[in-house]
Write the structure tokens for this entry.
Amino acid sequence: SQTIHQWPATLVQPVGSPLSLECTVEGTSNPNLYWYRQAAGRGLQLLFYSVGIGQISSEVPQNLSASRPQDRQFILSSKKLLLSDSGFYLCASAGTQNSPLHFGNGTRLTVT
Amino acid sequence: QKEVEQNSGPLSVPEGAIASLNCTYSDRGSQSFFWYRQYSGKSPELIMFIYSNGDKEDGRFTAQLNKASQYVSLLIRDSQPSDSATYLCALRGGGADGLTFGKGTHLIIQP
């Protein structure tokens, strides 16, 4: 079975600072990878997904970007954080496009 | 635009009773349906998935799907205090573009 590693678990960053969140997956090859955000009191919002190395699809236009430099590595970045970027960031993996998503433990980001 | 609607709750159920969680969706092209459990401060964990109309049972959990009515439900039998959590309904269309989630129902099992 696959294991999804995310770090850090918590992060406090000032407005205007950069961001880099990393996700790595074990136990599967060529997974579909996803970044979701869950803001306080709100549902899970899909930010980006990737079906392969270098292939990124964006669901919501914003100041975030994603990259997939290796098959099982997915990175979420920002050049300048906004207060509205605060939330719980979750990386998810699916073995195939029809498989359920499995989530990492998430990163709780607070922008101050 | 896919929409998934859930009653936010809280839904309070006595220990040992059946908890019934409901979900409706707008996109008739949705093909697969999922239930996740999320404890406070934790990431969602998959409970069940269902692709075909009817019932699917796994231990104390039963998922029910009615595509004609665009309705998915989750039944939890013999509810335990450890079942207290937020339950997220999710669906997928035909592509690789992830799951669309409802906002979840907060379930409280009262001892």
Observations:
- Chain B has a mean pLDDT of 94.
- DSSP finds no helices and eleven strands in chain B.
- Chain B touches chain A through 22 residues (CB under 8 Å).
